[in-house]
Amino acid sequence: MAFYWQSRALFAAARLDVATVLGPESLNASELTGRVGANGDALGRLMRLLAAMGVFEEVAPMVYRNNKLSNCLRSDDRQSVRAMILMHNSELMSRPWFEKLEAGIRDGTSPFRLSHGEELFDYLDHHADFDHLFSEAMDSVEALAGDGFATDLDGSRFERIIDIGGSRGTKALSILKRHPNLVALIVDRPQVVEEAQRYWANQHTDGVERLHFQAGDLFDAIPAATGAKDIYLLSAVLHAFDDSTCIRALQKLHEAIGSSGAYVGVLEMVMPETGANIASASFDMQMFVGCRGRERTLSEWKLVIQASGLVLEEVVRLRSLGSILVLRSR
User: Fold this and answer.
1) Are residues 123 and 190 in the same domain?
2) Which residues carry out catalysis (predicted)?
3) Which domain holds residue 250?
4) Which residue among 122, 159, 249, 316 has its CA within the 20 to 30 Å range from the CA of 129?
């Protein structure tokens, strides 16, 4: 029960944007109250709980400052998880867990569908505000995971990355920065592409001129490969699908590859065959709740890959959470 209370305390702090308001300062609860617009006694007690959790530091009685953990709640921090906390603790994402989890487990329907009448990604297509929050949350996961994978994947083998579902292209850009020979094409939903183009128009970042965008998805308008130095990158995409949909997605990629000899890089968390840790088991359950997706073991990945007609050529273990499954045509 205490874990639930703590998660809601984090959500309240994220909603109030306390960490951003604090910035580099140390403030007492009354000063903080005026800046965030809250009840002084209630906010002081919230901060005391968060400090006891290790989020924020109490430097004097009821005087608080940011620490390493609370900095991740700042809107302006490069590794901010604020959007992720806001998204997962929102009523939209909480209600399926609270109200429909048992029903979903009984009949196999995603609790999100039972709560909202449609699957998560269909819902996003016509709820722009939540879609924006969802995209921000996905980008925050990319930032938190770091860019070590860009070293783990030998980008020198390729000339073009086709990043399917790549959002703003942050992951692809981290690879481009290490390999000046590479260009990247980001393929995502139209509204995501529009937002990404607006975002990069105001940024001056090395490599961004080699970052290109195209509206589309895995089941429609996948750009065709032009040669063996293309790689399709799918980062945390296929875990959102059940097995039959995952196979269909990989078959679409197989068609796009044709006889070109291009590669597919599937970046996912690969669950152990037995003894899953709490992180992988939790992600797996969230995939079921949100969209009937799943995290897969290596043997489960091999089954869907084989059914698609592709071949698993290599498994690249990443220094961060996850692996890259490198696939090719037979």
Assistant:
1) no
2) 239
3) 146-329
4) 249
Same domain for 51 and 110: no
Query: 52: which 2 tokens?
Result: 């006891």
Residue type, 194: E
pLDDT digits (tens, 9 = 90+) for 235-261: 999 999 999 999 999 999 999 999 999
- Separation CA 313–CA 242 (nearest Å): 23
| SS3 at position 276 | coil
Gyration radius of the chain over CA positions: 21
Write out the two tokens for 286: 């969230």
Identify the CA nearest to 100 among candidates 88, 115, 120: 115
- Across 297-313, b (16+ Cβ under 10 Å) vs e yields beebbeebbeebebebe
Name the domain count of the chain: 3
Q: Are residues 248 and 169 in the same domain?
A: yes
Q: Which residues are catalytic?
A: 239
| pLDDT given at position 142 | 66
